[in-house]
Amino acid sequence: MRIVLLGAPGSGKGTQAARLVEHYQVPQISTxxxxxxxxxxxxxxxxxxxxxxxxxxxxxxxIVLGMIRERLDQPDTERGFILDGFPRxxxxxxxxxxxxxxxxxxxxxxxxxDVPLDNLxxxxxxxxxxxxxxxxxxxxxxxxxxxxxCDHCEHELVQRGDDNEETVRRRLEVFQEQTAPLVEYYxxxxxxxxxxxxxxxxxxxxxxxxxxxxxxxxxx
Length: 220
Prior knowledge:
Blueprint: E1 2-7, H1 13-24, E2 28-30, H2 31-41, H3 44-54, H4 61-72, E3 81-84, H5 90-102, E4 109-114, H6 117-125, E5 127-130, E6 136-138, E7 157-158, H7 165-188, E8 192-196, H8 201-212
Parallel strand pairs: 1-3, 1-4, 2-3, 4-8
Antiparallel strand pairs: 5-6, 5-7
């Protein structure tokens, strides 16, 4: 089971990824986590990445691919993997495909957790978090009983600074600009699956399992 997970901020991708990891016992490989771990460990690739970041540059695709390759050499990926955060554009998708073909572990599909822009705006700009217990509410989709007060511990609810409408809209526009070509890339050769992300969490999870069970470890 070798897949790329695509989903905008607020789509619920993190929730579903955690469920997939538990259900199928395959690791989620987040390029952000790989970069942080490599820099902290001071590996050769980590040092190169840190040098680029210290100069205010983007970490090159070659470095990120090298980190992914090192991660795929670890035994827990033998049953498969869920890639998250890479690729972000066509050039990266093509380079990833070439690397995985050489490793004789080709990517089987990309799965897009699909949520319309307006819905994502409500999910992200409506988020409120309890300062005390960390409970999350949403003024549009899951409002608290009392405005600005947590239902559980009655402490104040606050909104993250980057959850304002202008910032959220730009983040979503950037995601869509990057992801639309990727969706077409995987669709072109029949490797794209779409999951409707506007439904109940359990319904979405069931849809993921319907798609992935045929290629799951021990079933492919």
